[in-house]
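Lab meeting minutes (informal)
Scribe: AK
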Amino acid sequence: MSQDDQGGRLPRRFMGPDALTDLLAIAGSRFDADGAWVVLSTAHREGRTAGEAIPALFDGEPRISSPDHARLLYGNLLALWDFLEAGLTPPLGPDAGETAAPPPRPRATPAPEPFGEATPDAPWIERAWQHLEDDAKSRTRLQHIFENRQDPLLEALDAAGLSDPGYAVARFLVFELFAFLELGRPGQGRTVDGRALERPVPEGSPPPPALKAYVEESLLEAADEDEAPSEAELAQVRELSHRALSALCIAYGGFSQPSERTS
């Protein structure tokens, strides 16, 4: 629900935990304001949208008592979502004020221009990465394309025998590589044969140096995490990631001029 019944924009304002708890109770939700924040925070981390997350607060359809109730309920919940988008926490404690306006909604970094037949360089990769970080809707769309189009690759990754931390690193990294290529050459990629993960990286049509460097940088960061895979497993993830990158680049038409820059 994004507009009121007079056609105006829905007011996105968090009126405080007590007010939201009352609004949720009237609508039949089993969650109070703190519980709603947990549900929405979890959905946000998983890349879901507010429209996908808010219905989880209710068992079935919410009981809306009036148009004013609907405006206040959804305005408060969307205001919580704005706090999440801004990377901030709303005033939920016992000393919270009666009303709190959400912070200005951050402007997502736009997707970089497709690189087409050129080769992406490090600045292009950085802009693409920032776009994925900022734009949850775009990230979710690309995740759906990845899972639908590259299911054989994911099945091969599932069968690679990695631990949970190792698999998480590999899967997310391979998704990011796919997303960069899909942003650079939209709709041009073919499905990759999962057996590509069992074969050494072929000679000819090498991946762009910026993408290869991104793999190495990502693995260095993964090694510093609290629950990092072992050194031996990170070496396996590195090999799988480079094989996946090579296969994905070929699926997107290859890169015959790796020295060409695109801004």
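Next up, CB showed the second protein from the same session:
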Amino acid sequence: MTIRTKLFTAVLVVLALGLLAACGGTAPATLGDIPAYPDAVELKPGESTIADTLKQNNQNDAALRAQLGTGGKTEQKGYNLPKGATWDQLKSFYDDKLKAGGWSTNSLVSGIMDQANQGNDLFHVANWQRGTQNVSIVMVTSPTNADEKQVLISLSSQ
């Protein structure tokens, strides 16, 4: 083999490995693949203003991406959390489930989110990545009733 052929082969191997790493080696996740927190109750459009908003967000995202021809999508859904659920419990649940499914966190992004979450009793957020997908969870606590909490799940695919 000539040096040129070896170099060409090496470049092809590196590109193939890069593509596999970018894909995460697994099929893209769907929103249905992201588990619900135990005993959480899904918010339904027509019954919840939050669910109505998330449904509209999904439609707006699809329309905008179609107009721009960018591809990808963002899907969102929400759940009422059981009484007594805490941010630490929620984050730990998703951290365990998502990491077991090949998702990872970005230390810089996670550090910024952790700082923003500290001292904020009403709003917490975390994010995981796998290939060209991101999943974010947002826990929102009612400012008038600390027992009313929802988790919003957002899955973005590029």
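CB comment: Helices lie at 3-23, 49-68, 87-100, 107-117.
No objections, moving on.
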